[in-house]
Design goal:
heterotrimer, A mainly alpha, B mainly alpha, C mainly alpha, A: mainly alpha, 75% helix, elongated, B: mainly alpha, Helix Hairpins, 4 helices, 69% helix, 0% strand
Chain lengths: 143, 121, 492
């Protein structure tokens, strides 16, 4: 893909907007269709597009394998952490309304953090799947 | 109980049987996974289709709307889709490794090559 | 206050340990976390087991959403019994795992192995704890997906195809289950099992409900490897690393049997499954076929692990026979056999793990003179084998006793005779091992090469448990009786 000038330029133009759109989908999840899962997939798609155009090694330099693996773990921990925090603050697991003094505010905070965890994990998983399948058979140590 | 008023169910059943048939009748591992995916898709339809009320909107409370569709099937199926994606990814990963280890993705050839080497391979 | 949170901690602790292990990446640390979490789960399960009031249950609403709308967990005597079984086996197996997987799994994947192990544990515990039919599906898939990985993680290429087969059959089973739940949801408008059982009364004879019963039964039969839907199981257990065979043989099928009992007795109710579909007659036939056919196949296996795997299929037949007899003794036999067969099979597979480590093979012909090379392993195998047969003073005997009693109570004397006869077949395949290990001369090297203590001690704990629970049945038996009563009573 080294010579595909059009693709390279368009990709660079598109990727920032893809990430922005992912954030829009993420934060609009409170009021309409959207949420962490969709936003995570869009985020991963942006990086995957970069990998398709500029090559897998470039994508791996941008978002390293180790980082992707910790993304998977951290997102789940964030989700679970919010649940445990609810328990520590005297509620049940995943009780959001205890997270802030104002219960409604607590609900907002809880769902925001949980969806952030979903975004991180989903983006990590999608990227990991892409890396593992695309890298198979090219560099033996990369999988 | 006419055909036209239940076409959603018919589509579900046709997809279900198609997927199951591919799953059982084909020896190619990739085709098996395709069958599995179709089979699972039929279940998505089974949940989603009855959740829609004609004339109903998304369940966001507003003055001008009185009829809402049931959002729960969508949430359930989003979960089922994630499970399906994970299953498909794992299945494909296994197929890649089977291809590396056996040089084939045809079930009968794989069983054949296992048989020649005895149970310790 | 903390005691009110125990039902959720039971499930969330292992689930959250998995990402922690992935973050640490260090094999030793991963083992430490997995072991700590498994033992904690066991402690929680025991606490729940003793705290569940007779005839009552703990309810827990996630996110404080009230029961029929939100996801609720419900721990009654039956679920507590399964929780104890699963977490007990997990804690013994994880203690054993460290030395065993060092030999059978690449070092780079050790942390992934433990991550998958705790994930699988969390899924299995979740299945037992939840009272939400769809949540149960999610946990079923969490445990299944991680067990496919666990099977394929070893070095044998045969494991890859076995895991793929299991993936296809397992997903098919889970999808059948979810179709059944979908139909039930269409008819009742609820996913909460207790609520569902109540609302089913009004629509119980309708066709969607009957097809839901059929779908759920077939789907779960795939998961429990009920004959003739068992063919994935021997391949998977034979090809997996020994630790994984031990863990799955003791837990995965058992938990699915629990789900089947939960649906047949508590959700659908005996009247519906019995009168409308003649399901119990069907189950009797399949159970007999399973015990006879699988025992005979086990007799002619050339591989120790495959033999044990086929014997598992046969033992599942005893459990479903107990369900099919559908009286207090039969249900007690089914529940207590979950436990008795669980600990017996785990003991046997763990001992085989030691043999794999020292001899590098599980072929029957290579076991010649094993008793001289590995005396403790061979003797342990015989003791656990006696429990498999159901000899008096072993755990297996308790099951057989209640099974025979249940059959006689239904005046099926031929069934009672059949239970005894199939026990004789299992005596034959255990005898094959005894003959090889004790009566043959070792083929080559006859020096002592006992399995390391790290493998032998956990295995022997389970072997001794097989005898202990044959002599002292107060916990296992009363627990099973209460669990059977809870299943039969349903959610009232």
């Amino acid at each position: 893909m080294r010579s595909q000038l059009v693709l390279r330029v368009i990709a660079k133009l598109l990727i920032p907007f893809m990430l922005l759109f992912a954030l829009y989908v993420q934060f609009h999840g409170d009021f309409g269709p959207g949420g962490g899962f969709q936003a995570g997939v869009i985020t991963a798609a942006a990086v995957i597009l970069y990998g398709l155009i500029y090559g897998l090694p470039a994508a791996r330099r941008l978002v390293p394998d180790r980082f992707v693996e910790s993304m998977i773990a951290c997102g789940v921990l964030l989700y679970g952490g919010v649940g445990v925090a609810g328990m520590l603050l005297g509620g049940n697991f995943l009780d959001y309304f205890v997270l802030a003094a104002d219960p409604v505010h607590g609900q907002h905070l809880g769902i925001l953090l949980v969806e952030l965890g979903v975004l991180i994990t989903v983006a990590g998983v999608m990227l990991k799947i892409f890396y593992v399948f695309a890298g198979r058979g090219r560099d033996p140590g990369g999988a | 109980m006419s055909f036209s008023s239940h076409y959603g169910y018919w589509a579900t059943i046709i997809l279900m049987v198609l997927g199951l048939y591919i799953l059982i009748a084909r020896g190619n591992l990739i085709k098996k996974l395709v069958g599995l995916a179709i089979f699972q898709t039929s279940v998505y339809l089974l949940y989603i289709a009855p959740g829609k009320l004609i004339g109903g909107t998304a369940p966001i409370i507003a003055e001008q709307f009185r009829v809402y569709s049931n959002p729960l099937p969508h949430v359930l199926i989003l979960t089922a889709i994630v499970v399906g994606v994970a299953t498909l990814a794992l299945g494909l990963a296994l197929v890649v490794r089977i291809h590396e280890a056996y040089g084939s993705i045809e079930e009968d050839e794989i069983i054949d090559r296992d048989g020649k080497e005895g149970p310790e391979a | 206050m903390i005691s009110a949170q125990l039902p959720i901690l039971q499930v969330v602790l292992p689930l959250l340990a998995a990402p922690l292990i992935v973050l640490f990446r260090h094999p030793g640390l991963a083992w430490l976390v997995a072991a700590a979490v498994s033992w904690c789960s066991f402690a929680i399960a025991v606490a729940l087991f003793f705290a569940v009031p007779a005839g009552g249950a703990f309810d827990y609403a996630l996110g404080s959403w009230a029961a029929p709308w939100g996801i609720a967990y419900r721990i009654d005597s039956a679920s507590a019994y399964v929780l104890v079984l699963v977490s007990l086996i997990a804690s013994v197996v994880v203690t054993y795992a460290r030395s065993s997987i060092a030999a059978e799994v690449d070092r780079d994947s050790h942390y992934l192995f433990y991550a998958m192990f705790v994930l699988c544990l969390g899924g299995l515990l979740g299945i037992a704890a939840t009272n939400d039919a769809f949540n149960l599906f999610v946990f079923l898939e969490i445990s299944s997906l991680s067990s496919y990985v666990l099977i394929a993680i070893g070095r044998r290429r045969r494991a890859l195809h076995a895991a793929f087969q299991y993936l296809i059959m397992g997903t098919m089973g889970a999808t059948f289950y979810v179709i059944g739940v979908g139909l039930l949801y269409l008819m009742t408008g609820t996913l909460n099992m207790a609520d569902m059982a109540e609302r089913l009364a009004g629509v119980s004879e309708t066709r969607p409900v009957l097809s839901a019963l059929a779908f759920i039964t077939v789907g779960l039969s795939l998961k429990i490897a009920l004959f003739p839907l068992h063919f994935w199981l021997p391949n998977a257990y034979a090809a997996a690393p020994s630790v994984v065979s031990a863990f799955l043989a003791g837990t995965a099928t058992k938990v699915s049997v629990y789900v089947l009992m939960r649906f047949l007795f508590s959700v659908f109710g005996v009247r519906l499954s019995l009168d409308a579909l003649h399901l119990f007659d069907l189950l009797v036939g399949l159970s007999i076929a399973a015990t006879v056919a699988a025992s005979l196949i086990a007799l002619f296996q050339d591989d120790l692990k495959r033999m044990l795997a086929y014997s598992s299929v046969a033992q599942v037949g005893y459990i479903t026979l107990g369900i099919a007899l559908n009286n207090a003794d039969g249900l007690t036999a089914a529940v207590i056999h979950l436990f008795n067969h669980g600990i017996t099979k785990v003991a046997l597979f763990m001992l085989v793990g030691g043999i794999v480590l020292r001899m590098g093979t599980t072929r029957f012909s290579d076991m010649a003179g094993l008793a001289r090379r590995m005396p403790f392993t061979a003797f342990g195998f015989v003791v656990a084998g006696l429990s498999l047969i159901g000899v008096p003073a072993s755990a297996g005997f308790v099951t057989k006793w209640y099974l025979v009693m249940a059959a006689l109570e239904r005046a099926h004397w031929w069934l009672a005779a059949l239970v005894v006869a199939t026990s004789l077949i299992s005596a034959l395949y255990v005898w094959r091992f005894v003959e090889m290990a004790y009566l043959r001369e070792p083929a080559g090297d006859a020096r002592r090469a006992e399995a390391p203590l790290a493998l032998l001690v956990p295995a022997w704990i389970m072997v001794l448990a097989c005898t202990y629970f044959g002599l002292e049945t107060s916990y296992s038996l009363t627990g099973a009786q209460e669990a059977a009563a809870a299943l039969a009573r349903g959610f009232r």
